[in-house]
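Researcher: First entry.
Model:
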Amino acid sequence: MGAADILTPVMVLAGWTIIILIWLYATRIPAMQKAKIDPQAALEGDLSNKIPLKVRQIADNYNHLLEQPPLFYAVALAIAAMGHVDTVAIYAAWAYVILRIVHSLVQCTYHKVMHRWALFMLSSIALGVMVVNELMKLFG
């Protein structure tokens, strides 16, 4: 097992984030045009009443992909840099990425909050497994 085994899920999640960004632009720009929202004026006010929920959900998900996932990126990079890649780290990394992708799909499509929350919690557990596994290697 090597660095590529832990960095592949990192790149998959980064690629997924770009897909969500494209989806965001593909929905937000037409919604703003339809609502006749001047992009400059959007800086001064809340768009939540002017843009449909379906469009806002995608923007919210993009923001969520820039909240906790950077911690995942840092942990995976640290594991790779220290040469501590093992089966637990790889499975936990893939679990994290798959759960975050499913979380995105829930949030961007039918948006059941409790389903999304459960996926977030499960992905947080996977990230926690990565961190605890690494800490045990460092200090155990």
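Researcher: Second entry.
Model:
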Amino acid sequence: MSRITRAGLIGAGRIAQAHAAGIQAAGVELVGIVASTPLRSREAASRLGAGRAYGSVAELLADPEIQVIHIVTPTAAHFAQASQAIAAGKHIVCEKPLTTTSADAARLVTQAATAGVVGTVAFTYRYQPVVQETKARLRDGELGGLTSIRGGYLQDWLLTAPASEWRLDPDRAGFSRATADLGSHLFDLVEFVCADRFARVAASVLQAVGGTGRTDSADDAVGIVLETTAGVPCSLAVSQVAPGHVNSLTLEVSGVRAAFGIDIERTDGLSIATPGSVRIVPADELGRGVALAGFTPQGGTLDLISGFSAFIQHSYAAMGGEPVEGLPTLADGLRAVMACEAVRRAAVSGAWVELDGRRSV
């Protein structure tokens, strides 16, 4: 086994801070960073504690000391940068969505497998103790059979976003906005927790909300109905124009005996409903979830930070040759991109759209 000790970072946007902190929390050296300009590279290297600023992506990838590359650039740049990193023999940790098309995502999956490198995608909500607890309880049969799934991911930042925001530029963000940015997390969360896959989807899309001054055709809010390969109905709501919602990610899975409710913004634990009653299992009593996530819940933002660090540590363990259960891989990134494309096709056609319906292992 070869332990990961040195990492490089491509990109210097907001999420770069979380990746840099996670790299350092794992005891790995952040060798260097490259951003959109030499000046920004130098500023980011100083701000994020990187050893050096590189003049280009090619220069960073040519550094033989770097074993893994973190890609935190706008989505449209992911495919080329990830492909170049894999070709250079580097492991990759990529922000979601993995790519703007499923064809490109599939190419990365194949390329990484051929090259023998590990690629992971930052679906970091998998590492929240309430998520791990729900997955474990569902696997152990506590629901008595899954009957329905309901979820949502709501934010409001798009209502006041500046024109310079890269997610407003289809050339940088791709054809999808809210579905790709938020829905990709939600799609992965449902398939991960339920150990089932989406089989088909119907959707409606709200484009370019009035008052924002935009005329592009990307989605701002989406209503989605899905069916899993096991025949379970699922309804999801995704919006970046929902006033009062900063980062509201929720998921409820219901069965014949109980329902489990996840709310990432809550600090008090997991909601468990049975006929006639609802109780909260406190965060510090989430035994299975805590064991699987690998850290003690503290609530809110602290758990999000710890979950991000746990994801990076698990990624590095897999890159070092250790078996890691539940790690979000390039194949999971491909699944999410496929779902985003299906949502778009369903909204345009007004008809159900089939996905690859093979059941998850």
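Model: Note on the second entry: The first strand starts at residue 6 and ends at 10.
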